[in-house]
Amino acid sequence: xxxxxxxxxxIAGDIGLQAQGIASHNTNAPVTYDAGxxxxxxxxxxxxxxxxxxxxxxxxxxxxxxxxxxxxxDGSLDIQRITATGGVTVTRxxxxxxxxxxxxxxxxxxxxxxxxxxxxxxxxxxxxxxxVIDLQSGVSSVDGRASGGSGASxxxxxxxxxxxSVPQD
Length: 169
Description:
There is one protein chain. This protein has one helix and ten strands. It has one helix spanning 2-23, and strands spanning 32-34, 37-41, 46-57, 60-73, 77-92, 95-105, 110-121, 124-134, 140-143, 161-163. It is elongated. Pfam families: LptD_N. Residues 140-169 are annotated as: Disordered.
């Protein structure tokens, strides 16, 4: 039993390195965007981007069908939050996370993804309902449900699932 626990911990630690890699980027770097269209809602301090949206920051790329960017305007525009919906993909190097929705909270330096979340690094996979990446501490977590409620997400039925390759001699 103890050996099985140790193996599980080692496997989970390996996929955790994936999220650690995403977590090690510069959250103060400039943000660039590319979209099919953009709508500035100046009075609400927000921008809506749509049509194959791509946002990048220091090697971290977020892609989705639509993004809502909330900002403050105190003489310069400061992004507060990006909410991405529709086929969301977050990548950095060879690491990739996908889900239905992602929220990048710039103040808290946290990315939260929900809805059939999948992490990929090489042939290793990790699937669940929600992924939280704390970019400041480097701690990431995956749980089986997209929210704190009792409903199941996707095909994982509220569980975290995955597969990991085993080194061959």
